[in-house]
Amino acid sequence: MSQPSTPGAARPADPRPGGYTGSGWAAGGTVFAGVLLFVDGILGVLKGIAGIASNDVYTRINDYVFKFSVTSWGWIHLVLGVILVLVGWGILKGATWARAAGVALASLNLIANFMWLPYTPVWAIVTIAIDVFVIWALCTDRSNPSDLVRS
Fold this sequence. Notes:
Elements (H helix, E strand, L loop, with lengths): L23 H30 L16 H24 L2 H21 L4 H20 L11
Helix pairs in contact: 1-2, 1-4, 2-3, 3-4
């Protein structure tokens, strides 16, 4: 029993070539991951500037294994933040290189914030959670990155 097609009637979307198996959640998560990386990068830049500009913004830690000066941590967060902004922008533009770079940099940012944990525990945990989501979203989406960008 087939129905005649009428003009303007909704038709199911054509399947993607290559047997698309990714989920809609992951594809939407990839765009959201790009936004999160971009925003996390901006916040990292601000965190870095605060650490560089003033040594008494963050709590000083006396006996900590990963003890760096607050200025050193500021430079680490500033550089990571700038790179995260660029990679987040690349993900939003649909660049293929940005996905792999996003996973690598989100992992690096996760490690840096784990080491930064005693200085600002709440914000470090929030950033770690964001990085875990970004890594998940970029690793589970199997769609073509250029399909995410609207022409």
